[in-house]
Amino acid sequence: MVPHSEPILEGGDFAASPVGSVTSPSSATQNGTQPRDSSSPGENGPLLHQKRANSSTANGSNGLNPRSCITCRKRKVKCDKRHPCSNCSKAAIECVFPGPGRAPRRSRKPPDTELLARLRRLEGVVQSLGKGTDDGEEPLSPLISAPEGDKLAIKQEECAQKKSSGMNLGMIGAFQPSKETKNDEQTNGMVKEFGRLVVEEGRSRYVSNKFWTSLSEEVAEMRDILDDPTEDEDDYPSPGSGSSASANHLGFLFSFSSIALSLRNYHPPVEQIATYWSIFKSNVDPVLKLFHIPTMEHTVLTAAKDIDHISKSMEALMFSIYYAAVTTLSPNECITLLGIEKQASLRKYRFAVEQAFARAGFLSTQELIVLQALLLFLTCVRRTDDSRYVWTITGLLIRLAQALGIHRDGQRFNLSPFETELRRRLWWHICTLDVRASEDHGVEPTIGEASFDTNFPLNLNDADIHPAMKEAPKEHEGATELTFDLMRFSVSTAVRRLSYAPPGPTPCRIKNASLRLEDKEKMIEELHQHLEEKYLRHCDTATVPLHWVAATVARLIIAKMWLVVHHPFQRSDAGAGLPQETRDRLFQTCIEIIEFSRLLETEKTTLKWGWLFRTYVQWHALAFVLSQLCTRTLGPEVDRAWLVIDGVFDEWGGSVSSNLRGMMWKPLRKLMVKARSERAKAVQNRALFPLDGSIGPIMNFNSQPGPDMNGSAVELPMFTNALGQSYTQPNEIGGIERISDGFPSFEPMVPNTASPNGDSLPNAFDSGTFGHLPLDPPMMLEDNLNWAGWDNVVKDFDMSYI
DNA sequence: CGCTTCGGACACTCAACGCA
DNA sequence: GCGTTGAGTGTCCGAAGCGT
């Protein structure tokens, strides 16, 4: 008799071994382990092989699940199969069991037959093409128009002639793909290449290579001649139909394979779907304008009515929307609005959305909707997953987008204005995600400036466009629903240019050597002017929360870009030669960056969009402030710095885990310990030797000095920072003077103007301008005493992360 | 010392194949 | 149709690493 710790299983593939194969004691493993999941015949009796259908009831009569839960499976630990299982209970996480049945097997049959047949067919086409290439330059066939009523159309790019005839979409601003770039493209081959876009309802496929372009054309012609409808099927194998061999390989990307299983049980109750959608509209759409809400609303609500029969692509989109909605809510809101526990729901929907992508055949998808869903999912998952996951899958998303020709402007292919706009929105959100995800991992963005020509979306409201429109609408002058996104797109373009590093073994410290400091400063100034002129001067920051967010984000970004350009990490001397004045400015700018970053996350009226901003840890600013706090130990600016650092450090630190961001966090933690220790020493000294010359009281202090233990011996007037927190009056005890003409500063920083918890929004943008952005003073070599420890930080902090 | 991760051994399943 | 084979899939032991 085998010692038997396994529960008796009923049904399912692991329910019971065929009687003949019940493992005998002698078949125990070499290392003495027991055979697993083999039921004891003595206890099981004649439990025979049962079909999968029997196992569809997840629970057997003993209330146990036939399979291990997802968490145990992932952790490769024994699952007691109770609901919830002991491991999940102990970890206080939701216990989710996979659907019944095993994942479908991959075919053992080599897919040669189909491939060979296709090859043979194409060989004939190649031969016929060869006749036309004798002179080395095969003539390109004219635009192939689909016959009336034909669902398939092949659209050749409009030629350069049309492009140069003033057919500009009117949104070319300073941070659009520049004219210079476009000219380069015209001479470097983008226009010469004559890409071809094959479009069908909701699907598209892009071919740029001349050979394949011609080939697809020939094949299309042959199809017309042969009138062979089956060819359409070949071009568009039904996703998830199982006919495509690659579909069977998708499971490895997103967890284990459940491609063939239903995700029906993972949807929220049908009556709740409208609530999820309304949360999405309120919390996601304003800051991530990806969809055309009027049409998408109809699509989503229609799908909700018949959730059992939606397409696999739509399924992926629905789960992305659920996931996004839950991401934006606080744990309490999740319970009040949706009656669910946030973390558990995030895990559940993430599992479902990944499975849905696999089921939708996303690796070979030609549907825009799947890419939109993936973009939405990746943007939201950044909030909780800081591993390489987002960066890696973003690379995949870029490829998928290129395959659909999203990187080419729809107008060149005579797509409808509506479709063109949606494709532009998607592409620029992909670009932004690319920049963000790359920054997270200290690498250059994947998308190169010259690799696309998709224009910015027009500055419009959703109401201005509809699917049936024939003419492109006129862009608005003032703020629209797109304004916030357009600003982000401008910024991502600028960041891409700033972070461009020439290929080759260039040392990290001079990674941006291709651009001079003055060029970078000019670029930032141009961006600043562009944002101000084009968008911000139209914003009503006092009463429209989204406008306030836009203005605050703009200032934050400009300030951060200044910081990045001037950051000591960017200098070959690691900052040793920075003049004191520059350091002071940097210090102040950094504090304000952190303050406003925090404000964006916590301000009451804009809290619902905080999910987007919470993914942005201000590494540069934090590192610099902490390094400065190792040498600046007293004074009101130091108090102010500690106030904000104490506020964010644990929270930001808590959101990073042991992976990559965790690695970046390590040196910051070390720096924090050192800064605290220096601060404690200084406070102790001041307590012993106060400024009035008396012998001070021996103060008790803990090892974590902060604003509550500044040990000030002088009564100081209190000021309020951007977060509405109080700190002592600058200048009173030799603090740093406010720099009005220095780095971009958040004005006004005067007592009690900012009231983040009050009715009006904090006055982050009253001046309506970022102020004068001066060039850095000439660099001078100064004493580097203040930089004690900085070298260590530089060593600790992998330079590539900056 | 408890917890997590994960390589890898093992059990089980079933498509493919040979054979009668 | 049936038996055999071997590769795919699922489970989970136990070593190693990590944090407290």
Automatic annotation (TrEMBL):
One of its GO terms (cellular component) is nucleus. Its main location: nucleus. GO terms for molecular function: DNA binding; DNA-binding transcription factor activity, RNA polymerase II-specific; zinc ion binding. Residues 20-42, 53-65 have a biased composition (Polar residues). Gene3D superfamilies: Zn(2)-C6 fungal-type DNA-binding domain. GO terms for biological process: DNA-templated transcription. Residues 1-66 are annotated as: Disordered. Residues 68-97 form the Zn(2)-C6 fungal-type domain. InterPro entries: Sec_Metabolite_Reg, XnlR_reg_dom, Zn2-C6_fun-type_DNA-bd_sf, Zn2Cys6_DnaBD. Keywords: Coiled coil, Metal-binding, Nucleus. SMART domains: Fungal_trans, GAL4. The keyword Metal-binding applies. The keyword DNA-binding does not apply. Residues 510-537 form a coiled coil. It is found in: Nucleus. This is Zn(2)-C6 fungal-type domain-containing protein. It comes from Ramalina farinacea.
